[in-house]
Amino acid sequence: MKAAKLYAIQDLRLEEVPVPEIKNSEDILIKVKATGICGSDLSRYGKFGPKKEVGLTFGHEFSGQIEEVGSEVTGFKKGDRVSVSPGLPCMKCEYCKSADYSKCNSLEVIGAVADGSFADYIVVPAENCIHIPDEITYEQAAMIEPSAVVVHAFYQGDMQVGDTVTVMGCGPIGLMCIQWAKVFGAKQIIAIDVMPEKLDWARDMGADIVINGKEENAYEAVRRHTDGRGTDIVMEAAGTPFTCAQVLGLAAKGGKVVYLGIPYADVTIDRFNFESIMRNELLVVGSWNSITGPYPGKAWDATVHFMKEGKIDLTPLITHRYDLSEVEEVFKKVFKRDTLFGKIMFFPEGVK
After folding, report:
1. What is the C-alpha separation between 312 and 219, in angstroms, rounded?
2. Is residue 300 in a domain?
3. Cβ-count burial of 299 within 10 angstroms (0-12 exposed, 13-18 middle, 19+ buried)?
4. pLDDT reported for residue 200
5. Beta 27-36 vs 164-168: how paired, if at all?
6. In terms of pLDDT, which residue wins out, 337 or 1?
7. What does the alpha-carbon distance between residue 344 and residue 45 come to, in Å, rounded to a whole number?
């Protein structure tokens, strides 16, 4: 079978390898149907290289069809359609024992410490799998994981019906935030980015107001559109050192700032934005991963439900579809930012 393995920084190789075998009685062999690129994949590919073991199969956002189940697996059978949580909590630490898996002391991820999804087949623990109904396509199901990350962030922010929301950054995660803000009952959604094309996507996903951060001062623009108060919740989904500081000034007094984006660099906060935390008595929360109990958690259940109902449709986020055979060139191109992209999806059986 084909598998894309990461050997070093910007050294991703598509190789022919044996189909993996089930070695644990509670594991499942899955034929990968669709698998997407996560922003963290790009950072690991272009900046950090393999986390632990050199030459592991890369990728962790995916869906597929069960090919074989281990002898002790219950609830799943050959032919079932599944999405898979890539998280690998230890299940032993104090946080895992309280089903707070996102805080696991040694949380790892498929594709970083175990072979991942940029392949024809993958073996995963049965407990990581979740059934997907026929109403959800495989490419939609491959986005359940990042969608659940967004839902978990809204839970962290304790969003209430009627809240106003600002979303900073209109990449795939930010665009998912916009659509989920509607489902959570947002009264007004403001989207901020520096690329006009992404702001167009934000409008299409349901943003009421879009602000180009290059063309106008984001703080002043948000205040102008909110009668001077700011918004109840600010979702930081850009993950840059600048925006991580900037978002603190966009929340209303007593508002909440939720961090989803990962800056991968030191963040320096100027006095005005830092004092906004104190003077405006903000609640600043972080959000990491999406997994809670019962594993993988209610964010996953919510995503499947609202996808099935058609109230969450992430298909418009997919801007590029490729055969898995193109994975090496695609990563090179995307990391160089030679093209504007949203969600990129690979199909081991070919694009149909």
Report:
1. 29
2. no
3. buried
4. 97
5. unpaired
6. 1
7. 15
Question: Residue 193: CA atoms inside 13 Å, Cβ hemisphere, count?
Answer: 23
pTM above 0.85, yes or no: yes
Helical (H) or strand (E) element with 166: strand 164-168
Q: What is the CATH number of the domain that holds 227?
A: 3.40.50.720
Are residues 331 and 232 located together in one domain of the fold? Answer: no
Q: Are residues 138 and 154 in the same domain?
A: no
Residue-wise pLDDT tens digits, 134-155 = 999 999 999 999 999 999 999 9
Based on C-alpha coordinates, what's the Rg of the chain?
A: 20
User: What is the span of the domain harbouring residue 61?
Assistant: 2-143+314-347
Element (H, E) at 333: helix 327-335
Beta strand spans in 203-339 (E): 209-212, 231-236, 251-259, 283-286, 318-323
| Together in a domain, 104 and 130 | yes
Structure tokens at 4: 């894309």
Count each helix (H run) and each strand (E run) in the chain, helices first. Answer: 11, 18
Of 38, 45, 79, 42, residue with least CA distance to 62:
38
CA distance 254 to 239: 23
**Residue 88 is part of a domain; what is its CATH number?**
3.90.180.10
For 244-285, the pLDDT digits (tens) are 999 999 999 999 999 999 998 999 999 999 999 999 999 999
Rounded to a whole number of angstroms, the distance between the first and last alpha carbons of the chain is 19
The residues pairing with 14 across neighbouring beta strands, listed in sequence order, are 4
Q: Cα–Cα distance between 35 and 139 in angstroms, integer?
A: 7
Here the tokens at position 80 are 């079932």
**Tokens representing 170?**
């209109």
* Token pair listed for 157: 């922010």
